[in-house]
Amino acid sequence: MQTVQAALWVVILLVVLAILFDFMNGFHDAANSIATVVSTGVLKPGQAVLFAAFFNVIAIFVFHLSVAATVGKGIVQPGVVDVHVVFGALLGAITWNFITWYYGIPSSSSHALIGGIVGAVLAKAGAGALVSAGILKTVAFIFVSPLLGFLLGSMMMVIVAW
User: Fold this and answer.
1) Percent of the chain with pLDDT over 90
2) How far apart are CA 37 and CA 12, in angstroms?
3) What value, to the nearest 5°, has the Cα angle with vertex 136 and ends 130 and 142?
4) pTM of the predicted protein model
5) What is the pLDDT of residue 90?
6) Do residues 70 and 92 lie in contact, with contact meaning Cβ atoms separated by under 8 Å?
7) Where are the alpha helices (DSSP H) in 40-82?
8) Do 123 and 88 touch, CB atoms closer than 8 A?
9) Which residues contact 76 (CB under 8 A, 6 or more apart)?
10) pLDDT for residue 36 is more than 90
11) DSSP string spanning 74-100?
12) What does the H/E/C string look like for 124-160?
């Protein structure tokens, strides 16, 4: 009976941590994505939130579950992940999100979670349990996405200026 009660508390704590991470993800990443349009006066805060919410829902139909598949199977060997790794990953990501939010440093909650997973797996099983192709893909897009945003934004500015 004690084992069942302990397991229940572990599950409850995991769910609470996951909800806390999800909450932090929402106010952290959503704020980063709508801050510019609100501060420049392009959209009112309510409009910007609706805009962000709409595209967050639509994104699943455009990008499917590719990112979730990479995080779920492409970063670490699935057999290594257990309750301890999930706790470590969530606590690391929540801590990093809080630090970057407090100091106003723009960062990605998704990358924080991936970093938390990698760190927890390194501590548990070592570097052999990591999937280097998935990690390299993630690191590459940390650099590619801002450059792509810069190029597309520049092209849009030139088009609008013409």
Assistant:
1) 47
2) 38
3) 125
4) 0.78
5) 94
6) no
7) 45-63, 66-73
8) yes
9) 85, 117, 118, 121, 129, 130, 131
10) no
11) SSB-GGG--HHHHHHHHHHHHHHHHHH
12) HHCHHHECHHHHHHHHHHHHHHHHHHHHHHHHHHHHH
Instruction: Give me 123's structure tokens.
Output: 């501590």
Please compute the mean of the pLDDT values over residues 122-133 and round it to a whole number.
93
Q: Find the helix packing angle between 45-63 and 2-39, rounded to 10°.
A: 120
Q: Tokens in use for 25?
A: 């993800």
Range scoring the smallest mean pLDDT among 14-28, 52-66, 104-118 = 52-66
Q: Which helix (H) or strand (E) holds 3?
A: helix 2-39
* pLDDT exceeds 70 at position 1: no
pLDDT at 128: 92
Please check the confidence at residue 70 and state whether its pLDDT lies above 80.
Answer: no
**Which residues neighbour 40 within 8 Å (Cβ) at sequence distance 6 or greater?**
none
